[in-house]
Amino acid sequence: RAESLAQQPSQLLSYSEFGELLAKSRVGSRLEGLRILWTALYDCQPYQRRLSKSTTLIESPRLSLLGGISEPYLARYTTDEDWTGGFFSRMCVWVGASEHVPPEEGATPGAFDDLVLHLKRVQGRKMIAPRSLTKAARKLLHLWADAKDRQAKAPETSEWLRGCFTRGQEQVCKGALISAMLEGRALDTEWDLDVEDIRVGIVVAESSISSVVWIVENLCASPYQRRRQEIITMLLKGPMSRPAIARRLKITKRELIQLLSSVCTEGLVVELPANAHGTLFYTLRDLADAEKLEDIADKAAEFGKGDNVVPIKQAGGVR
């Protein structure tokens, strides 16, 4: 809230379900302007809110966001503008896979536990801004930033990636500051950013850039391409009828006919013979396996009233 930022301009907002917030602030929603406001506050721009009886002024906001989100929500509730020059181009982004490995008995604390311990030690202490960068640190930062600027301007670079390249220098500096703070050098006494701090910051920025590249290659397609991929992904689990696909995707009959026509023409999706439940669609990685299906009509008859999936016999088992 504005009143909270006025009292404490430096804040970190944490969202365990960041996708829910993105859904509420999507284009056309009541909170559509929230991302624009967040971006302005992140850029430390002064903010003023006027009400009939009071005016709240935030001269120097320092707002940061920390959140986790699933891939489907990220793909569905972000726009081109979020990535190419707006909201997400200002963020450090990390794509990770959960490792459900129980800790071994007597194991030492992990990186996250170490970070929590460090933060507890520095809580409440004054953080001193660095006076400057050492000569070696400045040279390394300039060399890295120049290389990223050239990547951003290269004609083969996707427009989706240019924002993370051009803003990489800011991420390097933030990573360097956090590293120095955790080591205790940014607390209580004057200090300079050294070349080792910049190296840590570069690791942080490069990992974020790699994650954005993964997102662009896997998620940042047009809505039409996303729908096509959603259909193929659903049908990998088994055949579905046209009405079932439409309900799952929440699209009109006309849109669905266009999408199915496209993927069927390319041979990515195949129609099963019509039955009492209508035409069923399925896909196989190797379309030659379609000839190995036994008693398609009998399989289709097993399509229960409450089920959308029919088991398909393949080499290696039934799915």
Structural overview:
The chain has about 325 residues and is mainly alpha-helical. About 50% of the residues lie in helices and about 10% in strands. The chain has 14 helices and nine strands. Strands 5-7-6 form a three-stranded antiparallel sheet. Strands 1-4 form a two-stranded parallel sheet. A two-stranded antiparallel ribbon has the order 2-3. Helix 11 (about 225-235) packs across helix 13 (about 255-265). The longest helix is centred in the middle third of the chain and has 24 residues, at about 195-220. The two termini are about 50 Å apart. Residues about 285-319 have low confidence and may be disordered.
Summarize the structure.
This protein is mainly alpha-helical and 319 residues long.
What's the topology here?
Layout: H1 2-7, E1 10-15, H2 18-24, H3 34-42, E2 47-50, E3 55-58, E4 62-67, H4 71-76, H5 80-84, H6 111-122, H7 135-153, H8 159-166, H9 168-183, H10 195-218, H11 223-235, E5 240-241, H12 242-249, H13 253-265, E6 270-275, E7 278-282, H14 296-301, E8 313-314, E9 317-318
Parallel strand pairs: 1-4
Antiparallel strand pairs: 2-3, 5-7, 6-7, 8-9
Helix pairs in contact: 7-8, 7-10, 8-10, 9-10, 11-13
